[in-house]
Amino acid sequence: MADVVRWIEERIATHRVGRDASPAALQRLLSACAALAGRGGTVFGLMQPTGGYPDAERLYRLGCDALREWMVRIDDETLRSLLAEAIVRHGLAVEVPGDLRKEPRRLEHEELFRVVERLEAAGCSILRAEDAPVPTEEEVEDLASQLAPRPLPDALRAWLARTPSRLALAWIHEPTGLQGHVDYDIGRIPELHDGCSKQVTEWLDGLEHYYGVWREASPFIELDHGQGFIAVGARGEVVYLDNEGHTDLNGACLGTHVDSFWSTWRDLAFVALEPDVLEAIRREGFAASMSLGRAVAVALQPRVTGRR
Length: 308
Description:
Distance between the termini: 42 Å
Largest sheet: 4 strands, antiparallel
Structural class: alpha+beta
Number of helices: 12
Order of helices and strands: HHHHHEHHEEHHEEEEHHH
Helix content: 40-55%
Strand order of the largest sheet: 4-5-6-7
């Protein structure tokens, strides 16, 4: 057991902000601190023994000291705000500046609450979880008027009318490295349309595989780090618009309908749609029964197949 304690000490040391300032390193450290505080989950991938580690209190203090350094030294204000939110949510012994101290938001809609509940039960580290009420009919009509003369697809309009107007989630499952990320905001859809239209006009003319897909698509979600968009295609299907040169993935079908796509992605806890994940979807189709879906189901018990 002494060897394990020393190993955890070393892992905490290597996850200090000066060693590795990546968001992934911060997520691993945060997850470990939450586990040492008795919030569930693993300590850098290690399941805790019955009764916890004999030196858990000291290890927890070391971990909190490392988090405190992150809070002081990171420059990215968004990441700093998310860290503060996570520290408050987990009740960790790290002082949070007054301008960042906010009580954890109560989720407005069951759409996200059930997903977060399942992730927390699986010991995932949740850096972000927020939503907003379903939009009013006037808000949906206002969006349609902003997109005119381009029509708002009927299937997308119906989905917008019953989905929270904002829904953001970021999580990591330390033992497997699985991650999830979604950031949807009805208010950003006009901005996404403008950006895609500019791409079509200025860059894609002549690149027929890109031009043909992007020109007919109606984007409604931007993926993390600007890698691409999720959009409704000309026939009502949901497609991926690639923005990083992965030509074979551009136009990949994520669902025959907005509802089927959203149901599957929600059941997979909004698993991050990174290139390797999109490649698996292109090969197998997007369903909770695909190989990726089985991996998520094992990690995030109970099973995620079927709608809730």
